[in-house]
Amino acid sequence: MTSHPWSAGFETLPGEHDYRVDEVDGSVPATLRGTLFRNGSGRNDLGGQWFAHWFDGDGMISKIRFDEAGIHYRNRYVATDNYRDETKSGRIVHRGFGKMRPYGVLGNAFRQPANISNTSVVMQGERLLSLWEGGPPTALDPATLDTHGIEDFRGVLKAFSAHPKIDPDTGELFNFGIDYGAKTTLTPYKLDRGILTRLPQVVLPYPVMNHDFVLTARYMVFCLGPILLHPLRFMLGFKSFDRALHWEGSKPTRILLVPRDGVGEPRWIETDAFFQFHFANGFEDDGAVVLDLARYPNYSTIGEALRTYWRSAWPSRGMAALTRLRIDLGTGRVEKQTFTSGAANEFPSINPAYIGKRYRYAYFASNPAQREIGLQQQISRLDFETGAVTSHDFSPAGYVGEPLFVPTRAGGAEDDGVVLVMVFNSADKRTDIVGLDARDLAARPLFTARLKHHVPYPLHGTFTPRLF
Ligand SMILES: [Fe+2]
Asked: Ligand 1: distance of its center to the CA of 45 in Å?
């Protein structure tokens, strides 16, 4: 049984829908034309049995088209082997991030988690790639959301994170994968006009979990916090991947700078232990690298909340704070700056034209500073130049996900655009698609489009000006 107002937003959406959204308050700006894609755990249970972890849910894509006729919604599940097998049998067939197969150790030993393709999406040419960090992407048709299948670029790709970065000037896509084995390796990748290149692999000192990175003019930058995997406990089937993770706070966070041209040695810099899932952005500045991230003091609070997702109180204490790190490349010194940006800061995003560049604004989910529990109800904007934070509060009934900034005027200012967010309305258990004016976040939304059903809290997404 669910126990909090936000809990119902984790419930499975069983159906696949395809309809024009009729209930719209306000109006969609004429400059907002294109398609929003979102991915996330759409099926979080089988036969009423919740999966062990939020990250176990089957990938489900939402496609929201903004065109002259209005707003169109469509959703489909990614037809992975896991989705097909478990739909057919109505019970757990494959291991997941936290999910275990039946029959104990024997049922799980030497089985890898299934690729459930549930974390993000990115457009690549005419295809939509659905992403999951433990394996290769799954290619989809962006118009019909038909699943074409695994895309491993002729066997080159194994793990491929869900947080690729596209250089706004060159169009090159950079990403990485972590592969666990006798040695744990981090492989950086570059994808340029459909050609995938593997950059020199980096052997990690121990097996860590890492989810995101920063692209700057010269580097791919990683912050490898001491969240370590016990590979044997996992591989032998004693523990799930999640339960085989442990925090070793006596170890440092290792900052890794990998030359993005593949030439030269990587550089390591150590700093005090912290954990992050997500970066807002980063850039090079006068002999330093600046990194902006949602920084957790450790993995305990967030690790437990993700594990108990639907019934968690989602406590604020121990959650992330938007933080700027400045790494002096001469001395290796790391300076930390924090902001008064409310509680439980997560899902930071920016104007994609500023990836890897000096920039001014980040948008993120948050809660008011004094709020002690609950999923995030605010979308906030931080102005790094002034430190000013403005917020749009969706309380009492609304619970937010990742804000996505969409520029709406070619050559416009950095914040000339719309912030799109999906908001779970706990009062009637439906999800709204909301557009906020990025320059006036606190104002009444530009529009609120009401879906006929809820969309289980999505993770990440992408917007393309193309209409699908
Ligand atoms: Fe993520």
From this structure: 21
CA 162 to ligand 1 centroid distance, Å: 7
Q: Is 327 a member of any domain?
A: yes
User: Is 2 contained in some domain?
Assistant: no
Residue carrying the six token digits 């999505």:
458
Give how many domains the chain has, as a whole number. 1
For residue 1, is it within any domain? no
Instruction: Tell me phi and psi for residue 17, to 5 degrees.
Output: -115, 160
Ligand 1 geometric centre to CA of 359 (Å): 21
Rounded to the nearest whole angstrom, what is the distance from the C-alpha of residue 277 to the centroid of ligand 1?
A: 6
Identify the domain containing residue 395 by its residue range.
Answer: 7-464
Reply yes or no on whether the pLDDT at 2 is more than 80.
no
**Residue 235, domain CATH:** 2.130.10.10
Q: How far is the CA of 468 from the centre of ligand 1 (A)?
A: 24
Q: Is the pLDDT of residue 160 over 70?
A: yes
Q: Is residue 385 part of a domain?
A: yes
Please compute the mean of the pLDDT values over residues 32-61 and round it to a whole number. 97
Quick: pLDDT tens for 187-216. 999 999 999 999 999 999 999 999 999 999
Q: Say how many Å lie between the CA of residue 26 and the centre of ligand 1.
A: 31
Cα-to-centroid distance, 460 and ligand 1 (Å): 7
Cα–ligand 1 centroid distance for 343 (angstroms): 19
pTM above 0.90, yes or no: yes
How remote is the CA of residue 306 from the centroid of ligand 1, in Å?
13
